[in-house]
Amino acid sequence: MSQYFIIGLLALIVTITASPFQLTEKYIDEFKHGLEELKILSKEYEYHQADFNPEAYNENHALTDAEEFDFIVIGSGASGAVIANRLSEVPEWKVLLLEAGAPETKITQVPATYPYLQTTPYNWWYTTVSQNKSCLGTEENKCSIASGKALGGSTATDDMIYTRGNHKDYDIWADLGLDGWCWKDVLPYFKKIEDAHIHDLDRKHHSLGGPVHLENFQHSSNLAPHILEGAHELGIKTVDYNASPKLTWYQRIQEKNLVVRPLSQVIKIIVSPHTNECYGVQYIHDGHLYVVKAAKEVVLAAGAINTPQLLLLSGIGPKEDLEHLDIHPVADLKVGHNLKDHIAFIGLNFVFNETSSEEHKEYDAVVDYLKNGKGQLTSIGVDALGFLKTEVSKDKGDYPDVEFYISTDIYNKGHEHLKHLRIKKEIYDAVWAPLEGKKGFTIAVVLLHPKSTGVTALHDKDPLHHPLINPNYLHDEDDHDIETILAGVHKALKLAHTESLQKLGIHLNHNKVPGCEHAETDDDYWKCAIRHLSVSFGHVSGTAKMGPETDKGAVVDHKLRVYGVHKLRVADASVIPVSISGHLAAPTILVGEKAADLLKEDWK
């Protein structure tokens, strides 16, 4: 199906609701105080790195006393957590999981707090280099790219939406010459992942008993039924795109053979210059640098930005770039290239003509959450997702090219609340400040299959400096990307003008984007607005591309092994060679499950 909406997304039931406790006034006040502290932290936080000089460290001396594990997994996100968990099922294997971020708290686990987490130490605070065809409404024309820095990676800080993508994504993946990655091959892994407690469970496509708990929303606004009715008016079907869940991990007893070290940032993968064999890593913890050895393999699952950075720092990447930075080349590979990301236009804001009568008392919301695991605090503000094929698509089949991400956020709560998006104050003052005190919803139009690709590269040799990220948003030669988003805008406007939504009493925010006021036509205005109000959804992939040996752009093979380097695999979103028609949490978990099986096949 080419067009469909998902209504009733899935919500997190936090561990606190599983344990009975006395719901006292003091406990509620402490919980509310924790929420306020998180909001304050999100406003005041400035990123600081440890003052550390790795050049002054004697690696060879440290190796004599280094710990040794069978496997070292770098990164505890959607893929790394799965790999460490699955490998530890083999009792004779010792597994080390290294994570640069900190563990979560009960406060950070509250779904409604996820926007605040983007401006705290739980985010890497990545920004793009200055763009000239996108991000024009952001400070220095640099878009933010959210990436979780926590035990759990981005699954600890994102909106928890779980979408597998379209069947065709995986068939295109396999058609690149990559056996084992077509839809028929990956579906069993998706089912293995799930513990799907969802409405109208289809056992043909879903399963129970897996490590990822999926269930339907505990709370949403009154908007969702109207969106559904409006979609039906336009002939858009409502389907289970995979039940569009939100996800959380089961709490489980840690295996004795699994060691988890948070606040441990890996800065180099150690590869023998004689054998090209990976045999350990360097990492920083508490201001000190450590070396640890891997008897079998190192598995890099640090995410599509950190992974290429670590490979490059370790001499794995384009030879000329490495030599320019005085890094000894180990393997000449296109690391950091083929960067793809989903960008979204956030300028379609629809405002209710009258002030909403729906109010949520803060005290009641906290009580409902703590006592029942329900209510306003379980909501991320998203009412529906739509995956649609626009009129400009050249695909002959039913293959979506845009996503509608429909939320109750109309970006009108003050400029400081858009800090995580780096929106310029003059943009906020002109477009959204006049809406303060109003309620409504936004249809964010997300580009699913960008033709534009980018590059991430090292800024310098310092592993504590952020890499240079140039996604080249909206930079394709034939303007396919912006034309696709424009077609999505027209489709979203049709939805908003359906009888079902118009009876809510809504109107489009007509406040003009500065710099676009004098556009000659509506389409010219929308294109200008798209270039100003385009933001990253943090769905970066492809920077350590999977491909056959004949593919000059490939970094890993179909078994995730790095070309030219022994005992090193990459297993996260960076290996995905195609754009996915959905959010990346589920596909990244899939990569982790596949990686674990491949490792077991080779070593067990």
From TrEMBL:
One of its GO terms (molecular function) is oxidoreductase activity, acting on CH-OH group of donors. Residues 1-18 form the signal peptide. Pfam families: GMC_oxred_C, GMC_oxred_N. FAD binds at residue 266. Keywords: FAD, Flavoprotein, Signal. Belongs to the GMC oxidoreductase family. This is Glucose-methanol-choline oxidoreductase N-terminal domain-containing protein. It comes from Rhamnusium bicolor. The lineage of its organism: Eukaryota, Metazoa, Ecdysozoa, Arthropoda, Hexapoda.
